[in-house]
Amino acid sequence: MLSKEQIACRIAREIKDGQYINLGIGIPTLVANYIPDHLQVVLQSENGLLGIGPYPRSSEINPDLVNAGKETISMVKGSSLFDSAEAFSMIRGGHIDMAILGALEVSENGDISNWKIASGLIKGVGGALDLVASDAKLLVAMLHCHKDGSPKLRKQCKFPVTGVRCVHKIFTDLGVFSILPEGGFKLLERAPGVELDEIRNKTEGRLVIKGEIPEMTGFQQQ
Amino acid sequence: MLSKEQIACRIAREIKDGQYINLGIGIPTLVANYIPDHLQVVLQSENGLLGIGPYPRSSEINPDLVNAGKETISMVKGSSLFDSAEAFSMIRGGHIDMAILGALEVSENGDISNWKIASGLIKGVGGALDLVASDAKLLVAMLHCHKDGSPKLRKQCKFPVTGVRCVHKIFTDLGVFSILPEGGFKLLERAPGVELDEIRNKTEGRLVIKGEIPEMTGFQQQ
Amino acid sequence: MINKKVKDAEDAVRDITDGSVLLLGGFGLCGIPEAGIQALVGKNVKGLTCISNNAGVDDFGVGLLLKERMIKKLIASYVGENKEFEDQYRAGELELELIPQGTLAERIRAGGAGIPAFFTPAGIGSELAEGKEIREFDGRLYLLERWIKADFALVKAWKGDTAGNLIYKGTARNFNPLMAAAGKITIAEVEQLVPAGELDPNQIHTPGIYVQRIFQGAGYEKRIENITVSP
Amino acid sequence: MINKKVKDAEDAVRDITDGSVLLLGGFGLCGIPEAGIQALVGKNVKGLTCISNNAGVDDFGVGLLLKERMIKKLIASYVGENKEFEDQYRAGELELELIPQGTLAERIRAGGAGIPAFFTPAGIGSELAEGKEIREFDGRLYLLERWIKADFALVKAWKGDTAGNLIYKGTARNFNPLMAAAGKITIAEVEQLVPAGELDPNQIHTPGIYVQRIFQGAGYEKRIENITVSP
Known about the structure:
The complex is a heterotetramer, with two copies of chain A (about 220 residues) and two copies of chain C (about 230 residues).
Chain A: H1 4-12, E1 20-23, H2 27-31, E2 42-45, E3 49-52, E4 75-81, H3 84-92, E5 98-101, E6 105-107, E7 112-113, E8 116-118, E9 121-124, H4 128-132, E10 137-141, E11 153-154, E12 167-171, E13 175-179, E14 185-190, H5 196-201, E15 207-208
Parallel strand pairs in A: 1-2, 1-5, 5-10, 6-11, 10-12, 14-15
Antiparallel strand pairs in A: 2-3, 3-4, 6-7, 8-9, 12-13, 13-14
Chain C: H1 9-12, E1 21-24, H2 34-43, E2 48-51, H3 62-67, E3 71-76, H4 83-90, E4 95-98, H5 101-113, E5 117-120, E6 134-137, E7 140-146, E8 150-161, E9 166-167, H6 176-182, E10 183-194, E11 213-216
Parallel strand pairs in C: 1-2, 1-8, 2-3, 3-4, 8-10, 10-11
Antiparallel strand pairs in C: 5-7, 6-7, 8-9
Helix pairs in contact in C: 5-6
Family (chains A, B): Belongs to the 3-oxoacid CoA-transferase subunit B family.
InterPro entries (chains A, B): 3-oxoacid_CoA-transf_B (IPR012791), CoA_trans_fam_I (IPR004165), CoA_transf_AS (IPR004164), NagB/RpiA_transferase-like (IPR037171)
Protein name (chains A, B): 3-oxoacid CoA-transferase subunit B
């Protein structure tokens, strides 16, 4: 089983040189810490920045510079600032190559639910709806199950759907999954120490396990 | 009868303090020379400038600073530069108060033709179509007749129409006309030395002359 | 050049009345019109429709207007951080319209740009598509969305001049330039107000034509929602 | 930061081929991609579709491509200053699509912004409305217009950095930022190319994400169409 940091670390391996990437709030934000130094990639913040840098030192905090999670950040060299319409022109216009988002649930045909819901009340969508409707390759980072143990990989989403047939891959604490064109979660890798039966038991939608499923390399078992 | 400069001078009297104005090519461009100093108005150039100044001195010519007629210009204090989409957002979005345009013809219900046409070939529309469709108060500056003597104030436009029911007032070398809501050119003023009969003879559309028509003041007869 | 300077925030918001529709700039608490909001709280008008990406927090930003129960309807993309909102909403005292952030930005941009409606892919397949026109272009589905305009826009910039030209700093730009263009009366507050002619015309983010009133605010708190640091 | 620098104009236009669809920045002769056009003339590709506000003059700008008979179709708002265009058009050798300038700008902006279609008032009542969908919003009529995108966009800026960020000067900005966003491959030429990090992020007009290739041009002529002076 992977920690949240390890999920982020695993996702970072999907990143290719030269990509423009949008990272959502939560586990996706952690991905930035694991991007290999030799890759030139640019992180977008949909409130209006290309070129997110690390969190600032406490002496360099700037209230006029925050990311989409309203966290203080810094900028890398070559970054640019713009308004929110321009930020979403980049997303909607197909200029962002990859989006890494959290989710409440994903269905076996690639639908995603990621509204902000608290005690049954929808509290927002933010920029997720635009990202899931864009041409960006959509990776989902989430824990495999809800806190009550119910599965998040569903036959159909129970929560309101944010986007349809848009998820490309899912990264959970138990494994890595792709969405098959005909529907179904195809298991690609399992987390260290995780047995196939556990994944079967904790997945509601159609799970496809073909051949030997490799264990992720490079992680210590939690 | 007025010269082109005098038509421009007469139109300048329509300008009110605090207005944002777009001046078309030809006679309208000349209007800038006659705006009274005590009025604070801002001239827009639809290629991307608010705050057109006078033509530059020959030592100050800048190839990167031209107006919509591709003429070298200068900027006044407080001007701003922007792209062409923003320029037309200002026009279409109702932010420009007044547009002064040239025209081939105007019909009695306020339709305007002002395509660029040469030897029967339409050579362009430029920004005129957006201006005539906007909320800007539309003033037309033109000679009363074509070179062959045929009238430009028409029952219906013979040239292709650029905008419908959009002209507010017309300023020619013979007089000033408003468009009546029910259709018709209402003569408001006549140029110095111009008799009503001349205007009647040279106007094709419905001409409305009610009461005494004052002669424009402040001009020497040409 | 036309002079847009007004005395202060109170003077600037003088004719905002019960039932006005307001655009309020900012993302979270970053780049919000602090002085304008404070002046509004002082006037205590009621029944406002507020369009803002977020609802502020309980004791800052748009949250202050919520607390005073001045808002009838809120149009936003994300209101997760405001408890006051939740209470009023659950009690049925507040209307909420949630809009995807990109659609919200584009609808406001359309309002300023005179585009009454446009098609966007965001929301297809979600409950936000209900009742909206769907059309296919080049094999893909899109929703028809309408422009958003308002009686007043309250925006915050870093620098401005008396002609109404504005320059923003950092990510405090966000929704401010879009809203400036979509307000019938746009009220801009700036940290530094300079005479017309002092700003480089090449670097203006909001041309003065969109701004009807401008004033220099004082004592900006610029509260930060989430302070995150590197060791 | 991703490095977009290429050697020169010839390298930048290497894969523009017969039949390519091109966006070409500039207004009249102001802010046109001089070096890119020259490199294209050198390649002598055929059957291009060129989208540009104007057609240049007979011996400069887009006019050079016309002269070499490289253009099959021209999409523009105004072609009044080009005799070569007129001859080819009358001979039936050239297609022309005239679009109101504001609609042209907005259609290109829509292409970059992922908006497949929008409504605009420009053209209502004119022959340009023929065959187009008309719809009423709030008591007024509007035309439906589609986005414009292209295989390549050739744009010209004043300064740029290796990350592809661009800053324009004066009215040479015009269509360039819109076209930069609407090209599948956008080629930017600049008068000064600096390393990433030297430009103020607050002052970037075209964020580098829209630019795939950038190079520093040399010997810009910047021809002026109408020299007008004050005494």
